[in-house]
Specification:
The complex is a heterotrimer of chains A (about 280), B (about 290) and C (about 80).
Chain A (H helix, E strand, L loop, with lengths): L2 H17 L1 H24 L3 H15 L4 H4 L4 H22 L2 H4 L3 H4 L6 H41 L7 H25 L1 H13 L4 H20 L3 H10 L13 H5 L2 H20 L5
Helix pairs in contact in A: 1-8, 2-5, 2-8, 3-9, 5-8, 5-10, 8-9, 8-14, 10-11, 10-14
Chain B lengths: L2 E12 L2 E12 L3 E5 L6 H8 L6 E6 L8 H4 L3 E4 L11 H11 L5 H9 L14 H13 L5 E5 L7 H15 L5 E6 L2 H4 L5 E6 L2 E7 H7 E6 L4 H6 L4 E5 L2 E7 L3 H5 L2 E4 L3 H14 L1
Parallel strand pairs in B: 3-7, 3-8, 5-6, 6-7
Antiparallel strand pairs in B: 1-2, 1-4, 8-9, 10-12, 10-13, 11-12
Chain C lengths: L1 H4 L3 H23 L23 H22 L3
The chains are: A mainly alpha (about 280), B alpha/beta (about 290), C mainly alpha (about 80).
Chain lengths: ~280, ~290, ~80
């Protein structure tokens, strides 16, 4: 891959982020603000000295322990961000190949020497690799503000600061876990990503309705023709597997990616993404 | 002279509607070619087919490539401006320039900035905040900064006021055209471009009804202002079109020797607009 | 072949979905996934091509089963 192709791809990714700032930066910023406000409000209901002592007590638990071992304690805070990321990604994916056909700006994008494959891959990359980076940066900013507020509280109550630094390091280490969780989940959900992109590229109107409607119909169709429900079984087994959506330890990371179910899902997702790439040629 | 575009038997249907009904055309390299036709004639479909934005049946070669196979490779050698405002509305002007610079290997940023400095377009405004005329100016500035063999313009001045329209064609001719590049312009506003053209294509109901170089036009087509006493004789020569003009009649002839027509009245070469109407009416009457 | 698949957006969608379903059904059959996940009480939902001739019989069978169960429930006072 030459330098020009990399520069081109980077420009495509930049375009996606600029166009969808609300989904990739605005939404997690709102969630972070809500968490900070809610936590501050709860803290103000408790007696300040007791709060400071309680925090100091908890922070001692972190003292001297590896941040990566303690990182999982912060994963609960990640849950609202992960949910926001999945919802925003779904909204992005179902609209991204539809909107520019509706507005006719597709005629400009396709008048540039960028292939349909590059275009569609840039959108997959945006969801799988790029969006989680912004979410993690905002969570980091939230932790930083939280840490400053905590430090002020603890210092003004003349309580020992020992573990606060370690707690912060564990929070930072959790950011790596959060990013890895998002990556693992995206790879797990590649069939969904492909399905949404396919119908985003296909539909002339209401792409979400097409995506949902055809999904149900394909299931009934399989039953009608083959008498089997393998599709329903497969979807059910994927949706109801909570371990794939949040990882709590680094050791299981490779295992979550390199297992049969994930790899088969990547194959299925690739079939659908290929359909979306070819579908892009129909510009009307 | 080689041909930059060669098309044979292009066909395209949208449901029951036939947009292209066996289009054959060739466009010589270095020409300024006008694709003229009424609304719904197939102009936009033809141009979109040339740049691979529309799948058509038939044989097609543009700048030595089949547009349907590798559109993105073709786009390194071809630029396109459409009639509708197709620049993405949410982008800022500076972001658009950054994007084109990153994705197009032949784009020269300095040229674009030089063109834009002669306009009133601010770099930090979003495209949705610009007037229609400014959007066209911007798109033209971008396109003129890219070294390509072929420029395809689909009704580029549609809906613009006279100042922007005049400026558009002035810039195109003076700052861009160098005799080597080919420009294809589609329009139904014939008068505006007829002085620019070196090659002429008329399209009607999905078929090409005229394909000629301007230099050959005067040899093939003749307009005669005929007196009342010579009208029967003029009718006998088989005109393709007749119209009333201040008490006399103006006859248009195709491929009739000038010696035969000289006796009928004053000879002149028809304007592109008059020829267009003539060919359209001929087509209507079969 | 490519001309047929890429004739229009509808043919392309159908082909993509056929490949998608084909891969899933093949994988399910090879790896021995559970064949049925949902059972529908309404026999119309169980209607499939293989059961076409037996459809009429199976419908009256399920009606008979339902009536028998209702009678049993009434008798035991479980309504």
């Amino acid at each position: 891959m030459d330098r020009f192709t990399i520069v081109q791809f980077y420009a495509l990714l930049r375009r996606e982020v600029l166009e969808h700032r609300n989904l990739f930066i605005g939404a997690p910023a709102v969630v972070a603000l809500l968490i900070l406000v809610a936590t501050s409000w709860v803290a103000m209901q408790i007696d300040e000295t007791q709060l400071a002592e309680g925090l100091s007590y908890i922070s001692v638990l972190f003292d001297g322990l590896s941040p990566f071992d303690m990182a999982p304690f912060f994963m609960l805070l990640a849950i609202p961000f992960m949910l926001t990321l999945y919802i925003c990604s779904a909204i992005y994916l179902i609209n991204t190949l539809f909107q520019d056909r509706k507005e006719m700006s597709i005629l400009f994008w396709q008048s540039m020497p960028v292939s349909n494959l590059q275009t569609v891959l840039s959108k997959v990359f945006t969801v799988v690799i790029v969006a989680p980076i912004f979410y993690v940066l905002i969570i980091f900013a939230m932790y930083l503000i939280g840490m400053i507020l905590l430090t002020i509280l603890v210092v003004s109550n003349e309580v020992d600061l020992v573990g606060i630094g370690w707690m912060f390091l564990a929070a930072i280490a959790s950011l790596v876990l959060i990013y890895c969780s998002a990556l693992v989940t995206s790879l797990w959900l590649l069939p969904t990503i492909g399905w949404l992109l396919l119908f985003s590229a296909f539909a002339k109107k209401t792409p979400l309705l097409w995506a949902g409607g055809v999904f149900i119909l394909v299931g009934f169709f399989e039953d009608f023709i083959f008498g089997t429900q393998y599709l329903a079984n497969w979807v059910q087994s994927r949706a109801a597997n909570p371990n794939q959506y949040l990882i709590f330890e680094f050791q299981s990371l490779l295992e979550r990616i390199f297992n049969y179910e994930t790899l088969f899902g990547i194959v299925v997702g690739s079939v659908l993404i290929t359909g979306a790439v070819y579908m892009r040629r129909f510009t009307d | 002279m080689s041909n930059i575009v060669e098309a044979r038997s292009l066909r395209k249907n949208y449901g029951n509607f036939t947009a292209l009904d066996g289009v054959d055309l060739t466009i010589p390299s270095g020409a300024i070619s006008g694709l003229i036709g009424p609304n719904g004639a197939g102009k936009t479909t033809t141009l979109k087919a040339l740049i691979g934005l529309c799948d058509v049946d038939g044989e097609l070669s543009v700048a030595g490539r089949d547009p349907r196979r590798a559109r993105h490779k073709l786009m390194e050698d071809v630029c396109f401006i459409a009639d509708v405002g197709i620049l993405p509305k949410w982008l800022k002007v500076s972001q658009l320039i950054d994007y084109v610079e990153a994705v197009h290997p032949r784009f020269e940023r300095k040229k674009a900035e030089k063109f834009l400095s002669t306009t009133d377009i601010p770099a930090n405004k979003r495209i949705k905040e610009l007037s229609k005329g400014m959007v066209t100016q911007l798109h033209l500035a971008l396109v003129m900064s890219i070294e390509v063999q072929l420029l395809v313009l689909d009704e580029p001045t549609l809906g613009l006021d006279i100042i922007y329209r005049k400026e558009f064609y002035d810039r195109l001719l003076n700052d861009y055209y160098d005799g080597n590049r080919t420009i294809i312009i589609s329009t139904h506003q014939v008068e505006e471009i007829e002085t620019l053209l070196s090659h002429l294509l008329f399209i009607n109901k999905g078929k090409i009804v005229l394909d000629t170089l301007m230099s050959e036009l005067c040899e093939v087509y003749t307009e005669v202002l005929v007196d009342a006493d010579k009208m029967a004789e003029a009718d006998a020569c088989g005109p393709i079109h007749v119209r009333e003009l201040l008490g006399k009649k103006s006859y248009t002839f195709e491929s009739v020797p000038k010696e035969r027509l000289e006796v009928l009245g004053e000879l002149q070469t028809p304007s592109v607009a008059d020829l267009f109407v003539a060919k359209l009416k001929e087509d209507r009457h079969g | 072949m490519k001309n047929i698949i890429l004739k229009n957006r509808y043919t392309l969608l159908v082909v993509t979905l056929v490949v998608y379903l084909g891969v899933l059904v093949a994988e399910g059959a090879i790896t021995g996934r559970e064949v049925r996940v949902f059972e529908f009480e309404n026999p119309f939902f169980d209607f499939n091509v293989n059961n076409f001739e037996g459809f009429g019989e199976s419908r009256s069978d399920s009606d008979r089963d339902r009536d028998r169960d209702e009678d049993r429930d009434e008798a035991s006072g479980d309504v």
